[in-house]
Amino acid sequence: MRSVIALLGAVASTAAHGYVQQITAGGTVWSGYLPYTDPYYNPVPQRIVRPFPGNGPVTNLSFIDVQCNGDTVNGIIGTTPAALYATAAAGSVVTLNWTTWPDSHLGPIITYLAKAPSDITKWLPGTAAVWFKVAQSGYSNGTWASTALINNKSIYQFTIPKTLAPGQYIIRHEIIALHAAYTYPGAQVYPDCIQIQVTGSGTASPSSSYLVSFPGAYTGTTPGIVFDVYQGNASTYTIPGPAVWTG
Ligand SMILES: *[C@@H]1O[C@H](CO)[C@@H](O)[C@H](O)[C@H]1NC(C)=O
Ligand SMILES: *[C@@H]1O[C@H](CO)[C@@H](O)[C@H](O)[C@H]1NC(C)=O
Ligand SMILES: *[C@@H]1O[C@H](CO)[C@@H](O)[C@H](O)[C@H]1NC(C)=O
Ligand SMILES: *[C@@H]1O[C@H](CO)[C@@H](O)[C@H](O)[C@H]1NC(C)=O
Ligand SMILES: *[C@@H]1O[C@H](CO)[C@@H](O)[C@H](O)[C@H]1NC(C)=O
Ligand SMILES: [Cu+2]
Fold first, then answer.
1. Which of 13, 22, 34, 149 maximizes ligand 2 atoms within 8 Å of its Cβ, making it the mutation to test the pocket?
2. Which of 115, 171, 183, 185 has its CA 20 to 30 A from that of 28?
């Protein structure tokens, strides 16, 4: 039987920032990792999302924390695998439900995948260049992706490339908040890592030119990491990272 030992985080959870609280993939609705309650249950709930310390950002882009969250400064170095994974077909839509996102945190939403070479519930990518971008939204039609998310009841969807070879993948989904990004460090990265088994008969995989590492892909000189969101011309904003791989 599960019992709540303590809800120490209940106050902090009302603060700003955010994370993915629910995922729908392959017709199944999964809870996200809930940093303000999960750690206080016994047993700790099993999730498809790699655990992270809270709703705060990663700002030092050379820390492993930029991969799947973490708080190295306070001794929580990166993250660990989750016990479960979702299952969904290549070509299907994955729905990500964020906690209430603050209006002030303007910026892009970017989604990567990385293929696990073996059991995803044990795999840590480290600094290997294994991540490829499958979706991105920056500033378009007069709106930042973060604002479009708020206007869309915190729901963001992306499609798993139809031709993608089956296997186990980490979905690395992030919002980069730019409200303090006029200098480096400043950009706030909010990554979430979701484990998924992709099914289907696809055979495609990205060539090495699409693959990046986290940390590594973003630095203080990567286009789109330093940007003055108040004075800059948002129409000229470059979303950081490699080109999108569409399969
Ligand atoms: C980020 O972390 C690296 C490695 O620990 C450190 O050398 C660097 O000074 C940090 N950068 C900032 C801006 O804090
Ligand atoms: C998003 O998740 C929350 C928490 O589970 C839930 O209350 C809400 O209904 C979800 N939103 C949608 C649109 O499904
Ligand atoms: C662009 O923004 C306008 C005004 O907010 C809206 O009516 C229109 O549907 C948007 N178009 C797209 C393609 O999102
Ligand atoms: C907005 O939410 C709707 C309904 O949940 C969804 O179908 C749509 O794909 C979402 N838009 C984006 C850009 O993710
Ligand atoms: C912003 O950039 C766009 C695209 O380059 C350009 O068309 C527009 O004139 C610029 N706006 C301002 C205010 O400079
Ligand atoms: Cu914040």
1. 22
2. 115
